[in-house]
Design goal:
The protein has 4 helices and 4 strands. It is of the alpha+beta class.
């Protein structure tokens, strides 16, 4: 067992519960942590034997481009698509961070983290 971590995917997107958030958008950061059997790839040195993190990035980018009211919904869509596209995934964790949420206070951001194990 091993982990593939695609960390700090920075995107601008239009998620939020208010119309204003969906019009002006904000910065987001996404982390994807995948558990998979990496032994074959470690021995073969072949991309086909591992999780291609370029595919992970493209799926995150594609799903972040679809407007949603909740980042929970976005995180679940990312998980669902990755599990379909990459059957070698055994467990997955996705963290979606909204960098500048419209909250009357000082904070770095808010995050949602969802985990799923392949059935």
């Amino acid at each position: 067992m091993g982990k593939i971590i695609v960390k700090g995917i920075k995107l601008y997107a239009y998620h939020g519960c208010t119309d204003e958030e969906q019009k002006i958008g904000t910065h987001y950061e996404v982390d994807v942590i995948i558990d998979a059997n990496l032994k074959k790839a470690a021995k073969s040195d072949k991309l086909n034997d591992t999780i291609d993190y370029a595919i992970v990035y493209e799926i995150v980018k594609e799903q972040m481009a679809i407007k949603s009211r909740l980042i929970e919904h976005v995180a679940q869509r990312i998980i669902d698509k990755l599990l379909v596209k990459l059957p070698a995934i055994e467990k997955i964790k996705v963290r979606v961070s909204k960098i500048s949420p419209p909250i009357n206070g000082v904070l770095d951001g808010v995050c949602v983290e969802l985990k799923e194990k392949r059935k």
